[in-house]
Design brief:
The complex is a heterodimer of chains A (334) and B (287). With 334 residues, chain A is an all-alpha fold. In chain A, 76% of the residues lie in helices and 0% in strands. In chain A, α5 runs antiparallel to α11 and α12 packs antiparallel against α13. By secondary structure, chain B is mainly alpha-helical.
Chain lengths: 334, 287
Amino acid sequence: MTQYIARRLASLVFVLLGMSVLTFTLSHVIPADPAAAAAGFNATAEQIAQYRLEMGLDHPLHVQYLRYVTGLVLRGDLGRSMLNQRAVTEDIRTFLPASVELAVVSFILCVPLGIGLGTYTAVRAGRLSDAATRGFAILGVSMPIFIVALLLQLVFYKELRWFPSGGRLGSEFAPPEAITGLFLVDALLRGNWPVFISALHHIVLPAATLAVANLAVITRMTRSSLLEVLSADYVRTARAKGLSEIRVLRHALKNSLIPVVTVIGLQFASMIAYVFLIEHIFSWPGIGSYAVRAILGLDFQPIMAITLLFSAIYVAVNFVVDLSYLALDPRIRY
Amino acid sequence: MPTRTASPTRAFLHRMRRNRGALLGMTLLAALAAVALTSWIATPVDPYAIDVERRFQTPAPRYPFGTDDLGRDVLSRVMAGSRISFGVASFVLVIASGLGIPLGVVSGYRGGWLDEMIMRVSDVFLAFPSFLLAMAIVAALGSTLVNAILALGIAWWPRYARLVRGQVLSVKQSLYVDAARAIGAREGRLLARHILPNCVAPLLVQLATDAGNAILITASLSFVGLGAKPPSPEWGFMVAQGRQFLLTAWWVPIFPGLAIATTVAAFLFVGDGLRDVLDPRLRSTAI
């Protein structure tokens, strides 16, 4: 197993290097004038010249690449935003907690619900439930997330007036003093109930939108995987020796979770895209909104930095998913 | 006993027709394709015609999908947009499979260092979530719809390379390939007549699923401003433009959004059906 992990880590390093080559190519080689691209749309000739020096564009390509990678690895240098003139790493530190909070709350909503719904439909597998889950899954996958968001806003904000249409906190509140950066957690830790309730009120719609998309996939996966396990011999044996249906399910569910865990891990990739769109729609001040602002403002460095950072996280998540198989299925030995 | 033997194509079509999901998907796609073709010839109103006199008309028989802030007919624009969406899907798939299939064939058939190299490069591409990679590529190339298509094609080639490589690897060991080689078939013939036809089934499933995803991701790119530009009736862009009127004129963003959902769902149904019909073993992994 140690050997397996070592091998995976080695290929991970290769992939990360490859990713850095790709983002380097996109930021330093492809644009006709990378300095102009990095300096932005309205940059003056002097600003462009300054960027050219800063980015070391007067050096040969391999030297530029080496500087890019050493900056990345040794100093965590992801470049500077030309919109607010701050280091991108600093911006990420500011905006990331809001996105993490959104993702965590939506996972808390959709993972148990998805596994629960999947189990329910698997146990009651029949034509109707099959058609219904399949229809729901296809709908959940094919409906653009921004339309789900707009429909939820239309119903729960415009018609019912249950939830606000955007933002992270009511305008009458100041954000809780930061401990984790997650408003819900910080407000709880500080015992600030009004802020906690306002933050909860604001997170419902964006988190629900994010959950809808993942729910469909998790439900469908749990269902099909559980159905397969339920037809296995050992389940028949368990039933034959008189175990209650609940205990049989407990056996079966654990074994059917491997593909579900894979899917949850893989969902991380689509989650990133979803987070971009959802934050943009709900004016959620997270990393997605920041990225969209960068895109609209042609702010080049943050776009490349976020691409690299999130892809690296994605690779790491996949790695962890692979390792989690070991915990879920003792038969798997790498 | 059947009186005559069905040809594989006939048997395939028969099974597709009996698969309810596939039938639904194919019917929807046929209808959407008919709309797209019709819109070449005529739409109820000129999709680009601005008329402030008739702005924000609610959906009614005269304007079934209403009109937008510039008085343009939303139905006509959604119809014209279907052309763009089908075009987007076709071009993305042509680029992705056009790059991926030859590389996959070379990789699987030749093996060795070339295979190793192509696969390691594809690892790197696959490591990026495709929305992010497409976003970065469009940002570098400049944000236009053509670049969005190009970006997605570039981001997706490894899927095809992997798929075809795997098929080629397993098929090239088959007895019938050995037999064909033994009777003196040349490499080109081996590939064209014996190896590639066996890659068609999984490729079709992948293409059908990706067609929907291509429409969805390009619409998402356009939605955040990395794609279509005014006055394009690209669906994602129409939603983005109409979003500000959600509370007063919901039909402006919602109808193009539903058009995206319908088209993507149609492709997914067909992809799911193809998977069921062509490879029953994969049925349990259908999402």
